[in-house]
UniProtKB/TrEMBL annotation:
One of its GO terms (molecular function) is oxidoreductase activity. Its cofactor is thiamine diphosphate. Keywords: Oxidoreductase, Pyruvate, Thiamine pyrophosphate. Coiled coil: none annotated. It comes from the Bacteria. Signal peptide: none annotated. PANTHER family: PYRUVATE DEHYDROGENASE E1 COMPONENT BETA SUBUNIT (PTHR43257), PYRUVATE DEHYDROGENASE E1 COMPONENT SUBUNIT BETA (PTHR43257:SF2). This is Pyruvate dehydrogenase E1 component beta subunit.
Amino acid sequence: MTDLQKLTIGKALNLGLRRAMEEDPKVLIMGEDVGKLGGVFRITDGLQKDFGEQRVLDTPLAESGIIGTAVGLAVRGFRPVCEIQFEGFIFPGFDQISSQLAKLHYRTQGKVKMPVVIRVPFGGGIGAVEHHSESPESLFAHIPGLKVVSISNAVDAYWGIQEAIKSDDPILFFEPKRLYHSGALRAEIDVAGTPQKMFSSHVVREGTTATVVAYGPSVKVALDAAAAAEDEGKSLEVIDLRTLSPLDLGPVFESVRKTGRLIALSEAPSESSLTSEIAARVQQECFYSLEAPVLRVTGFDTPYPPAKLEEHYLPDLDRVLHAVDRSLAW
């Protein structure tokens, strides 16, 4: 039996969480305003009403307490799903994430599982104030013991959150907040179907002129750039990383060996970032296939600016196309 529904990313996440809670009574949701309000982005809307306050918990404004409590719940056999209200609020919980959550499975030689999911709305484009538009994913990708993923579409949102919850390892699940309720990104999903495997890189558009690799909110920018480039006779291959740690770069290497050129795209600042790692690894593995240096299109190495300046900060279609032109001119 199929149940096809056309969903936004936000609604897909909501239904994915609901399905996970229906299938496993050990799944709990916790965070600031996730219950009665349904979260500031309404991703958990209706879940407390249907599953009760014992399974959807409104917490104090204390990220360290949220993560620390989740660690204790995981030790006791639960599968907590924590929501960090905005990505910039995650740092009070950084100690628990890096010192406890990431290490307990290894430290106990696998005896203690850490099935904790931390949902992190991230990225800019919503006109928010300070600490509400950042991209800190590289900080967590650097920590061994954590899996870091990022979705870019409704299909991956629905299946990805379920796979993350079923994992026995801790996962930071980065969600592009400005795309939550985009009608243009609605996708038809069989919500009663067989779970799909996630967390590997995926070619979302094939091409031959150059490769553009992106993740999260930047995937839409890459696809828009590819559509515009086609009008100029250029064929861009777009790859959605989906998993940021561990990186699945096999499809990227294969693509670069075909196109000879790579543009790495991200909203995060460029220094010591995921785009840095991608550039280094591609140079190492595909040196003799490259026709030009790996180029990066990123946010700037500054704190995220006030809302009136963010359109100048965020990588856009024009910056991607300019990088493609630079690569082709090499």
